[in-house]
């Protein structure tokens, strides 16, 4: 589990390409503090497992399904990436619940500056837009951001100066692809509202919530 607060920007040092998989060596500093083999680190919002590490590098293996479903396939030697260690139970929770399981790949369709903010419109498959609401949360390349606009084809985010400086999002341009993770709470609610084919009680509804005493 992650928060979407990027800790550090790392650099891809080497990539070993399999037929459908990747082994990536990344250079960094902060996220290696107290690291152990098997730890989870989000790389551009993708939860990956540390398979090896040294004083200033760590290695991850990317399986075929992850290569197919994320922008990992577009990484090159020298690529800069957002890094975040898994959240601590005793730490501050500054972003929102982020699983590190990317829902889809988005494409930046417009970029505009307004005073100290950069607005980005990101196009995604329309079937994912049902999870977006104004002022809701979204994770873009591992960065927790607020939704400032939703259409039937895209959503808009706004980057404050800190986000522009401390993550790779501010360096993105029109046509660039990004990893998008929708708010998991919205997905859980959708699942709960679906009809239960194995039960005669049917789906969760407002009437059922009232009957159960959750609503007046």
TrEMBL record:
<keyword id="KW-0677">Repeat</keyword>
<dbReference type="Pfam" id="PF00677">
    <property type="entry name" value="Lum_binding"/>
</dbReference>
<comment type="function">
    <text>Catalyzes the dismutation of two molecules of 6,7-dimethyl-8-ribityllumazine, resulting in the formation of riboflavin and 5-amino-6-(D-ribitylamino)uracil.</text>
</comment>
<feature type="repeat" description="Lumazine-binding">
    <location>
        <begin position="1"/>
        <end position="96"/>
    </location>
</feature>
<dbReference type="InterPro" id="IPR001783">
    <property type="entry name" value="Lumazine-bd"/>
</dbReference>
<protein>
    <recommendedName>
        <fullName>Riboflavin synthase</fullName>
        <ecNumber>2.5.1.9</ecNumber>
    </recommendedName>
</protein>
<feature type="domain" description="Lumazine-binding">
    <location>
        <begin position="97"/>
        <end position="193"/>
    </location>
</feature>
<dbReference type="GO" id="GO:0004746">
    <property type="term" value="F:riboflavin synthase activity"/>
</dbReference>
<feature type="repeat" description="Lumazine-binding">
    <location>
        <begin position="97"/>
        <end position="193"/>
    </location>
</feature>
<keyword id="KW-0686">Riboflavin biosynthesis</keyword>
<feature type="domain" description="Lumazine-binding">
    <location>
        <begin position="1"/>
        <end position="96"/>
    </location>
</feature>
<comment type="pathway">
    <text>Cofactor biosynthesis; riboflavin biosynthesis; riboflavin from 2-hydroxy-3-oxobutyl phosphate and 5-amino-6-(D-ribitylamino)uracil: step 2/2.</text>
</comment>
<dbReference type="InterPro" id="IPR017938">
    <property type="entry name" value="Riboflavin_synthase-like_b-brl"/>
</dbReference>
<dbReference type="InterPro" id="IPR026017">
    <property type="entry name" value="Lumazine-bd_dom"/>
</dbReference>
<keyword id="KW-0808">Transferase</keyword>
<dbReference type="InterPro" id="IPR023366">
    <property type="entry name" value="ATP_synth_asu-like_sf"/>
</dbReference>
